[in-house]
Amino acid sequence: MRPLLPLAALLGAACWPHHQGNVPPVPRDTARVTQRPPAVVRDTALEQRAARLELKVLEQEAQVDELQSRLDDARREVVRAMAKLQSLATRAEAASGMAEAEIALQALRAANGTNSPPSPEYGQGSQLLQLATAEFDQQNYAGALYLATEAKNAASAGQGRVASDDRGGGGGATRKGEVPFALPLRLQTTGRANVREGPGAGFKVLFTLEAGVPVLAYSYVDQWVRIRDNGDRPGWIHQTLIDRRP
């Protein structure tokens, strides 16, 4: 009878339900036909160039912020130093300087036009005048006079730019898409350069400048810059032909 035991065990395992034993389920064919997305052609060189430009912009913004912070710190140091020299400025002198600064800013606002947005010089001068008022209230008359003078200088720079634009500060009325600089830029030519009547190579050549000639830049359209030379001659020059003065 003993030989029948293995046979019975095999028959029992065959009849045992799948969910009660350890017999693995019958594998399924899970392979599916999938559609691949269309291949996207990427211009790696162009992407790298755009990324570098973005980093360059961030770097320049950080540099501007750092310079502005240093300027503010230096201005505060000057005001603190002025506070120790009260004898150099009287209350009347400080009040007179602040009044002159306010008049200069009002004249600049009127020159720009009441319906036009305030110029960068007007905003800077107004901020300086507010600081001067605060120092005056604290009886720091020397500091107030210093800040009022700075406000007048900003207003004078703005009035000079407006007057230059009225005279055709770089060759005629404001052009479409023309962007003014916050302040006139002191530049110089990097080589022999043609100064044209308008922002483009198709405009008439007004005169030619040699290399190293100082110019004052007021605004730009694309890569063309509105300038005026030392002889007070206006015109437009290509951006690649000018650079900062040493």
Describe the structure.
Helices cover 48% and strands 17% of the residues. It contains five helices and seven strands, in the order αααααβββββββ. Strand 5 and strand 6 form a beta hairpin. The mean pLDDT is 77. The chain has helices at 4-15, 44-83, 91-112, 120-137, 141-166, and strands at residues 179-189, 193-196, 205-209, 214-221, 224-229, 234-238, 242-244. 26% of the residues are buried. The strands form two sheets. The protein has a five-stranded antiparallel sheet. Strands 2-3 form a two-stranded antiparallel ribbon. The protein folds into two domains: 50-166, no CATH class; 179-244, SH3 Domains (SH3 type barrels, Roll). It has 246 residues and is α+β, with helices and mostly antiparallel strands.
Compose a concise summary of this entry.
This protein has 246 residues and is of the alpha+beta class. It contains 5 helices and 7 strands; from the N terminus they run αααααβββββββ.
